[in-house]
Amino acid sequence: MTLHIFNPSHDEALAFGAATYCPSSAARRTADAMWDMAKWWKAPEDDILRLPSDGSLKGVSVPDWSIVERIAPWGWDAHIVRLLERLGAPRHLLPTAEELSRWRILSSRRTTVRMLDLLKRNMAGDARFSRVLRAESQWCTTMDEVHAAISGYGGRAILKAPWSCSGRGVWMASATDAPAMLRAEKVMARQGAVEAEPVYDRKADFAMEYECDGRGSVSFEGYSLFATTESGGYQGNVVASQTELAERIAGYGICTTADLQSLSVLVGDGLEELLGKAYRGPLGVDMMLTPQGIHPCIEVNLRLTMGRVAIWQARAFPCALPHSS
Predict the structure, then answer these.
(1) CB atoms within 10 A of CB 67
(2) Domain residue ranges in the chain
(3) Which pLDDT tens digit goes with each residue over 100-118?
(4) Using alpha carbons only, what angle is made at residue 95 by residues 279 and 119, rounded to the nearest 5 degrees?
(5) Does domain 108-129+201-324 bear CATH number 1.10.287?
(6) pLDDT tens digits, 47-91
(7) Alpha-carbon distance 136 to 52, whole Å?
(8) Which one of 81, 169, 194, 243 has the fewest CB atoms closer than 10 angstroms to its CB?
(9) pTM score, two decimals?
(10) Helix H or strand E segment including 122
(11) Is 241 exposed, middle or buried (0-12, 13-18, 19+ CB in 10 A)?
(12) 138-197 has which CATH code?
């Protein structure tokens, strides 16, 4: 039996970096309102743990650990492990401290920077990827590097905190924008770095979903198409068949379905090279359509994603497609 847990505080917990983190009220409300999300993909014999909305463990229904074979949270972090330990979860069902540390590092946006460099190298001279951008991104650990990146990108850049989610921790900056640069200094002081990338003209957001087996193999699970606010905040996913999603993405006139298929293989191979045996579990690679082509890696999310949920919803209710969730 698998025990599923929806812990939307996961990205916050990664940013905090310690088990003593207390989820924000917004994260707790979301966890309470959507606690049974796993109903879309769980097996009949599985169970779902409902996290307490007040942050305490009072009233939590403790599972029968003797029949639990696996725990599957939205994402693994030190906070959810500590909570499960307090509920009596057996040690063998939980990741080790070494695994948690490694996954946290891989979950930072530095993985995005490394992935873009790897993809550019692997695309070099290959005509199949003529519609894929050789996108830029820099990992900055000093304010001098931030200023240099902004200057190199024409005076404006998108800055991103190493750990954040749903568009938070992302802001536009120029060298003369004092509040934006002060924010960069504060993020760097807390998290050690910021990612800087050029400003792209976004036409649509989509993602490719994968599963890592922890033994070096990565399998492609499907496409997802989603909407965001102007600032990049998540709004919702399109629930439709994979064929329709690919056609919708290609319908913007920027790429073809064949381009998407080739890119899914390229990205999967890149993930195998980048992650190897260092991570096991679900992940999503956010991408973007621009007038110049496909941006192949906006972000790598080493956890479940709403795109993966939309894929499961489409499989569960094929007759009700398409709609948005």
Answers:
(1) 10
(2) 2-105, 108-129+201-324, 138-197
(3) 999 999 999 999 999 999 9
(4) 10
(5) no
(6) 999 987 777 788 788 999 999 999 999 999 999 999 999 999 999
(7) 42
(8) 243
(9) 0.93
(10) helix 110-123
(11) middle
(12) 3.30.1490.20
